[in-house]
Amino acid sequence: MIKFKEARINIDFFKNELYIIVDMNNNNQILILGAGKVAAPLVKYLLRKKYKITVASELLYQAELIIENNPQGTAVEWHSDDINKLHTLVKQHLVIVSLLPYHLHLLVCKACIRNKKNMITTSYQQAGMDELHSEAYRNNICILNEMGLDPGIDHMWASQMIDTIKEKGGKVEKFISVCGALPSPESLDNPFRYKFSWSPTGVMKASSSHATYLKNNTIIEHDASALMKNTLLLNFEGLGEMEAYANRNALKYISLYRIPEAETFFRGTLRYKGWCEVMDTLIECGYLSEQSFPKDITTYAELTSYLTKLENTKYLRDHFAQKMGLKTHSSSIMSMEWIGLFSSAHFSPSARTPLSVLTNKMLSKMKMLPSDKDLIVLNHQLLYKLPNGTKKLLSGTFKLSGSDNENTAIANTVSYPAALGAELLLQNKIAHKGIIRPFYKEIYDPILKQLKKDFNFVFMEEELDPNKWSSNW
């Protein structure tokens, strides 16, 4: 039995339904696992709202730093291999927010199910979670995944737009969604036209992953060798022409978005034009490989020549361009030369795979500077048909800029949906149980409204000429 010491219970009747909101003044309410850069806005928001929270991190000082001595917050040291402590922490809280790396979510999910606690994650639903749905449902708990930006806000806004179309009797024929976390235009000062707020490894791996989508009723699959060669071009006011490459497996979202009639369904990652060409070259020559190379290779030029089976001479740059079928002044060659992949400089001996050599170099030369700002761009395009046969094109664009490299748009857009979701769970306002994502109106409607009201997020929607839809999509 759970005892609520000095609990205040408010009972209100709305439309013959009983809602009980428990304000637990002396019990910890929310456990946040992880204290990285994304955690700070979430923690600060919850503390402003007077929730009692615990932040658990491998590095205790990081948790203490974001709590800022607030008496409502507690910092604890916790390591992911300490399962017993995880269960103890979970048992002491009502809602668990996991900001941990993707591969640890299943571990936390099992602890939440065992202790009958609600949980939120901001990243993609980890494989294996679906198998726990029945158990979570029986325990009357909600494991709410994909509550960040992408995935997260993209799902909620798309679901809202789709439901609005369905209310008119319309059917969505084609759906395209793209999202990018980018440096703002004024911070573009390198030929890659990209910068990193933290480790580039995740971005690089996503740039070489397998992707699947639906295009004109045909399933399209791209492996790493084809991913960056098949891009979608879009134009944004103030940003110009940008490009998107396919983002993982989009097919599973057709049923989750409840639009089985869709002929085209594409989810993509948005970048400034030029990025995909450079990534394609790096993939093709082997720089995204995680296979170790011989120990006698210690310089960037030696590694580049080893990967391409070229002789390491002072003409390596030109020979590389010729072998790859590129012009010496192409974006790929200029970018590789700028970052130093043709140089005789030595890289760190701890880097033993091409990917680690590349990401270390990227982080040293492409890191967000204190004065840099980031930019979030999210765009949905829905081509739909009304009952009278009229076709319409609904476009939605969301942009948000950060203040500097500490107060970033990416941190705000990932963390605020999770914080608002935690509030809904504390207030017992999510009826759906089991392993779920935020496709339901009871979730997306209040969260999108609050993002607009409290955080000034602006979701711009407009009807466009349906003839503007690209004929080959």
From TrEMBL:
User: What's the protein name?
Assistant: Spermidine synthase
User: Lineage of this protein's species?
Assistant: Bacteria, Pseudomonadati, Bacteroidota, Bacteroidia, Marinilabiliales
Q: Where is the Saccharopine dehydrogenase-like C-terminal domain?
A: 148-453
MF terms per GO, please?
saccharopine dehydrogenase activity
Which key words tag this protein in UniProt? Oxidoreductase
Q: Please tell me the species this chain comes from.
A: Saccharicrinis fermentans DSM 9555 = JCM 21142
- Tell me which residues make up the Saccharopine dehydrogenase NADP binding domain: 30-140
Give a Gene Ontology cellular component term annotated to this protein: cytoplasm
Query: What GO terms in the biological process aspect are recorded for it?
Result: lysine biosynthetic process via aminoadipic acid
